[in-house]
Amino acid sequence: MRKAFTLIELLVVIAIIAILAAILFPVFAQAKAAAKKTACMSNLKQINLGFQMYLGDSDDTFVPWTTNACNTETPINGGGSFDTGYLYNNRIAPYIKNGVDPATGKLSGVWECPSIKSSTSAITNNYAYNYYSLGGTHNCPQINAGPLNASFAPFNDTQYTKPANATTLGRPAEIYVIADGPQLMRPPAYIDSAGTGAIQNVGVWGSHQIGTGVVAPSAAAGANVTRLPFHTGRKSNVGYADGHVKSITTMNMVSNKVIMENGAWRGALLGGGTPEGNPGWARDWQ
């Protein structure tokens, strides 16, 4: 006659199952996060390739961040300089043929990073263009035609008012073109001159290895946090001016004035308003 399991034996089996679950579940979660990060990287590679193809058809000149900076064009989906029909996304769309609907403003497909798309709207893409350096700060001959003021150095140079020519870049393999973020991203000089620590205006997200998740900015940062949430991930995917993409430490991209999470995560702003103080952002840093 076969004996039944004793209570002790059953408890041992349950304990073993619990231990295995505790070991395996985090592994499964990490594998899922890694798969999303890879998908985001693949998207970014396609987008950056679109930029490179645009350069080839445009005398090596980068796409303007908008072709409606003066708000003078016929509205497509709401009008203004942020009308998707005139933004850089739509300008490089013919080379990617994925994810841009200029009529509605909706961005999908390649413009969605699986890691963070659930926290953004359909018209807020998950990748941001380094427009201060490459896309022209103004692009409008009638309004604000001059350069930025001196506090935004080195981006106050007149060369930055118009899109960059790829042949003039000092270190194309180290200059950011596109990265995890909302539509447009700004260099350390921006937040340094603004002096508010307004993290929702930086446009740089840590989309991977996220800590506690979305955090609110400091009290002085304004109320626009729901539209452009900020993540606290340690890693961001970045596409560079020579065409390659890679994952880097997010805090290296932003100003030391930007407090990320409980004051514990800060970027670096060495050199202040100089090209060297904005590595990866400025056209001519040496």
Account of the protein in words:
This protein has helices at residues 7-57, 88-96, 131-135, 188-194, and strands spanning 127-129, 176-180, 183-184, 235-240, 245-249. With 286 residues, it is an alpha+beta fold. The chain has a five-stranded mixed β-sheet. The radius of gyration is 22 Å and the shape is elongated. Mean pLDDT is 79; it is low at 217-228.
Short description:
With 286 residues, the protein is α+β, with helices and mostly antiparallel strands.
Order of helices and strands: HHEHEEHEE
Q: Provide the gyration radius in Å.
A: 22 Å
Structural category is alpha+beta
* Count of runs of 4 or more consecutive helical residues: 4
Average per-residue pLDDT, rounded, comes to: 79
Overall geometry:
elongated
Work out the strand percent: 5-15%
Portion in helices: 25-40%
| Annotation, overall tally of beta strands | 5
